[in-house]
């Protein structure tokens, strides 16, 4: 089991992800500085959350041009599981590995609280053990948008990983924290080996966090 | 050569910041505000005098990095 966590200037969830991976799999992931140009053989690459490059231009836009991202794209193409969390999701979108855009929250406020999500595609390498799960979000730009053609494509191809929902698993407008189209909280690429999600599973990965619903995502991809 | 790049949200994309700015302007007494859209303005200095090459490069810059074509449109002006 070999996993890698990419570190950009401004990443701040990289070590939380590393702790979650170590606790869940028993293996220490390798931290990879964004200036590196290649990753060794890997079973999981995580692009963590934070504020890479201070969110200059658009969140994730600068990081998407970092040298390491070419190899992340290559790994993604080869079928290696790639997980982008929060700013990592924004970076994967800006890199063209996932569809859509993440715009400013409709409330124009930074939102930091627990939310509930429901796994829509329950067959992917990341989501096969998840149904309804509680975990925190902490973002200013998580308002997911795609064109109507792209939305149809991701729906038809079962690429919606998670939608924001209520405690009964109902996907409703009231349970949408940030204005995301169709309550989308996370999406997969066409081959389902790349997942981008705004909620933070690494911050709900042990009981000390108050909730460990996020563990299932790491467990399913690490085991 | 100086290029001016204007990046704006596409017409059908909601602009909550623009709406808030519009309301603030109204509260200052500007009663004839119909709509406000917020965007970005970027200046790029190029060391070429060839407009054709510059236009081609600037288009590429906008499409590769400066604008997100899912939600934004761009316009390039060269002085």
CATH superfamily of chain A, by name, is Class I glutamine amidotransferase (GATase) domain
Q: Note the overall shape of chain A.
A: globular
The parts of chain B where pLDDT drops under 50 for at least 5 residues are none
- Helicity of chain A, in percent? 10-25%
Radius of gyration of chain B: 16 Å
In what order do the strands lie side by side in the largest sheet of chain B? 2-1-3
Strand content of the residues of chain B, in percent?
Answer: 25-35%
Q: Helix coverage percent of residues of chain B?
A: 25-40%
**Mean pLDDT metric of chain B:** 95
Any idea how many domains of chain A? 1
Note the main sheet of chain A: 9 strands, mixed
Placed side by side, the strands forming the largest sheet of chain A appear as 2-1-3-4-11-10-9-6-7
CATH second-level architecture of chain A? 3-Layer(aba) Sandwich
The biggest sheet of chain B, with number of strands, parallel, antiparallel or mixed sense and barrel status, is: 3 strands, antiparallel
What structural category arises from helix and sheet content of chain A?
A: alpha/beta
Tags for this model:
heterodimer; A: 223 residues; alpha/beta; Rossmann fold; 9-stranded mixed sheet; two-stranded antiparallel ribbon; 5 helices; 11 strands; B: 79 residues; alpha+beta; Mth169, Chain: A; 3-stranded antiparallel sheet; elongated
What this model shows, in words?
The complex is a heterodimer of chains A (223) and B (79). Chain A is an alpha/beta fold and 223 residues long. Chain A has a single domain (3-222), classed as 3-Layer(aba) Sandwich (Rossmann fold). Chain A is 22% helix and 25% strand. Chain A contains 5 helices and 11 strands; from the N terminus they run βαββαβαββββαβββα. Chain A has helices at 14-25, 68-78, 87-94, 148-156, 215-222; strands at 3-7, 30-33, 44-47, 82-85, 101-103, 111-119, 132-139, 143-145, 160-165, 184-188, 194-197. The radius of gyration of chain A is 16 Å and the shape is globular. The mean pLDDT of chain A is 97. With 79 residues, chain B is α+β, with helices and mostly antiparallel strands. Chain B has one domain: Mth169, Chain: A, CATH 3.30.1280.10. Helix content of chain B is 35%, strand content 28%. Chain B is built from 2 helices and 3 strands; from the N terminus they run βαβαβ. In chain B, strands 2-1-3 form a 3-stranded antiparallel sheet, covered by helices on one side. The termini of chain B are close together. The model of chain B has no long low-confidence stretch (mean pLDDT 95). The chains are: A alpha/beta (223), B alpha+beta (79).
